[in-house]
Amino acid sequence: MGKTAESVWKNCLNFVQDNIQEQAFKTWFIPIQPVKLNENVLTIQVPSKFFYEWLEEHYIKLLKVSLQKELGKEAKLVYSI
Question: Who contacts 28 (Cβ-Cβ below 8 Å, separation ≥6)?
Fold first, then answer.
């Protein structure tokens, strides 16, 4: 069975959850929905532009590491708002 957006995102969330405080995880990661996976590009849906900017400012390194663990060095994250 191939990887799906849901399975990749779930594994990323597990990694993120191990590396940040529980409240921050609930606030910034639970509302995110995986949309699609195309090769090594994961698209996620975030609630707002502010939400996207906050993730980019505070959690981008963590997101990149978790995504690369799942999809390899060429992994990319695309936001849908």
Answer: 51, 54, 55, 58, 59
Distance CA 27, CA 30 (A): 7
Extended strands (E) in 1-81: 33-38, 41-45, 76-80
| Tens of pLDDT, residues 30-56 | 999 999 999 999 999 999 999 999 999
Question: How do beta strands 76-80 and 41-45 pair?
Answer: parallel
Q: C-alpha distances in angstroms, 33 versus 68, 73?
A: 18, 22
Task: Supply 45's token pair.
Answer: 């849906």
Q: What tokens were used for 67? A: 């995504």
